[in-house]
Amino acid sequence: METFRRLETPKIWAVIKTQTISDDGVLSDGSLTDPTTSTQVIIEDSSGTVVQALAGMAKDSQGKYSYNSYTIPSDANLGIWNYEVRATDNTVVSIEHGAFEVLAEVA
C-alpha cells in the first residue's frame, strides 16, 4: 500500500481491459480498452467521508487512466483512505477499489 503525507498529491491509476466469460464460466482479462462513457474516481478519508466525488480521470494511453488533482489537506485525517474507480461503458459500470495511507506531514 502506498503512503502519502498531508499536503501531498496521490496519483491514482486505473487499467481497463475487456473481459470475457468462457463457456465454463471463467472470467478472463483481454486487451486494454477505453470506456465509451467515463472514468471517474471517488476518494474517502479514513473516517469514510467522501472528499472527492466523481472526478474525471485523465487518459494516459489506451486503457490506462490516472488522477492526481487532489491534494491531501494539512488537517486531513490520518490513516487508511479508500478510493473507487468507476469506468462506465454505456450502461455497464466496472468498479475497482484501492487504498492508500495518510501520514502526518514531516516536521
Largest sheet: 5 strands, mixed
Q: Report the uncertain regions.
A: none
Distance between the termini: 23 Å
- CATH topology name, in short, is Immunoglobulin-like
What is the β-strand count?
Answer: 10
Order of helices and strands: EEEEEEEEEE
CATH class label: Mainly Beta
| Computed structural class | mainly beta
CATH architecture descriptor name = Sandwich
Shape: elongated
CATH superfamily label: Macroglobulin (MG2) domain
Overall number of structural domains: 1
Strand order of the largest sheet: 1-10-9-5-6
Radius of gyration over C-alpha positions, nearest whole angstrom: 16 Å
Count of runs of 4 or more consecutive helical residues: 0
| Beta-strand residue percentage | over 45%
Helical content class: under 10%
- Summed over residues and divided by their number, the pLDDT gives a mean of 90
Name the quaternary structure.
single chain
Describe the structure.
It contains no helices and ten strands. By secondary structure, the protein is an all-beta fold. The protein has a single domain (2-103), classed as Macroglobulin (MG2) domain (Immunoglobulin-like, Sandwich), CATH 2.60.40. The strands form three sheets. A five-stranded mixed β-sheet has the order 1-10-9-5-6, with no helix packed on it. A hairpin with a 2-residue loop joins strand 9 and strand 10. The model has no long low-confidence stretch (mean pLDDT 90).
